[in-house]
Amino acid sequence: MISISFHGAAGTVTGSKYLIKVNNRQVLVDCGMFQGRRELRQKNWEPVQFEIDQVSAVILTHAHIDHTGFLPKLSKLGFDKTVYATPPTVDITKLSLLDAAHIQKEDAEYRNKKKLTRYEEALPLFTQEDVEGLDQHFKSVPFGEWVGIGEEIKFRYNIVGHILGAASVEMVLDDGSKKVSILFSGDIGRYGNPLVNDPLPAEKTDYLVCESTYGGRMHEPEDPYFVFSEIINDIVKRKSILLIPAFSVGRTQQIAYLVHDLIKNKRIPPIKIHIDSPMAIKSTDIYIKYADYHKVPICNLGGKNCILNGTHVELHRKRKSSKLLNKLTGPAIIMSASGMMTGGRILHHLINRLPDPNTTLLIPGFMAEGTPGRKLVDGADIIYIHKQPVEVKAKIVKMHGLSGHADYQEILHWLETLNLPPKKVFITHGEDSQRAAMAVHLKTKKNWDCHIPELHETVEL
Ligand SMILES: [Zn+2]
User: Fold this and answer.
1) How close is the Cα of 367 to the center of ligand 1, in Å?
2) What is the pLDDT of residue 299?
3) Is the pLDDT of residue 301 over 70?
4) DSSP string, 260-316
5) Rounded distance from Cα 328 to ligand 1 centre (Å)
6) How remote is the CA of residue 162 from the centroid of ligand 1, in Å?
7) Is pTM, for the whole model, over 0.85?
8) How far is residue 451's CA from residue 431's CA, in Å, rounded to a whole number?
9) All residues at 6 or more sequence positions from 220 whose CB lies less than 8 Å from its CB, including other chains
10) Exposure string for 426-455, b = 16+ CB within 10 A, e = fewer
């Protein structure tokens, strides 16, 4: 008996957790945290719908918290087996989870102090100790190498772009009477990104679990170099601040590279990027450590000409130095996390800069429903940070060229090389409207059989 159960990323983009069962052998592909609206976050606290002690391994596609952020909780609940990931994903996951533990601790303390919780006491989902408890369980697997988990399951990772270390997972399942293959897309990256590798084509599979973050959307064809140079030249002219909420992993490094390249080619005057996020600074170190994993070589490691961390970048590790940025005058770029503006140091920059019409806020990618980022994309005049109203007078600019997610055409392009139609495609990791649109594209363009699974649904393969 072979089955798959969808314990997350079904009807939403977060909480990715797919349980594969072959006879009595069970593995979990991704172990993500639900993020965004309160009803979603609440799901992280609900009882787990599978037997944790029966799970032989967790196979991570990449390090983003919506794919890894439930691991410490799983471990706290008794999981003590192997967590497989590509080498960069191991490093980035450990870093991201520690950061998430820290943010949750601070958030819980703040809520308790200000009596902002509706519960007796606000608690973090997991702590630094829970994350450290996982350390010994990680096992890194290079791209392309097959790994067996018992007789029943084997898998390998393939490059899928998106962020450093991100992979699709090709899996072969054998229950003794039949063999089936299943391909997990992971988060599919984009083609032509200046820094991140293009997704490698998928070749064949019986079943496909396909993400659909942008299942119904197409990125506007924009040249990130052109758009970015226009924005920067504008803030230089106005001597203003460009504020960029950026994911510490991926987006920050892409933007640092882009600015380096634009300065080098004299398309913008020299300008400083202030990276105000300890987590982003540490993840840049990981990008430099894995110098061969990018589309462009990262030479002059850490030196003044380093494309990610050269003289165009100023790092702000300490809180004191972060606070001094409140007085910074333009032209300059401040980049801080979190990417969807749900926590972290970006919040104090938003409180400080959003009411200022001379500030430009760049929104460089997808903003999930219910996040402050989404409200700003939707044109809110006021947003609430820690329940306090903040007026939005800053200029809001959206940019899709830096999105880490393929649009539906790019997903179709990635699937073009599959030489057989899969028996079934499970469409996950998208809001319902996006999943439905992706299904329509796959049905009309390829005549593939699509299924939109519900949360906790089990399907026999
Ligand atoms: Zn991701």
Assistant:
1) 12
2) 64
3) no
4) HHHHHTTSS----EEEE-HHHHHHHHHHHHTGGGSSS---STTSTT-TTTSTTEEE-
5) 32
6) 7
7) yes
8) 14
9) 400
10) bbbbbbeebbbbbbebbeeebebebebbeb
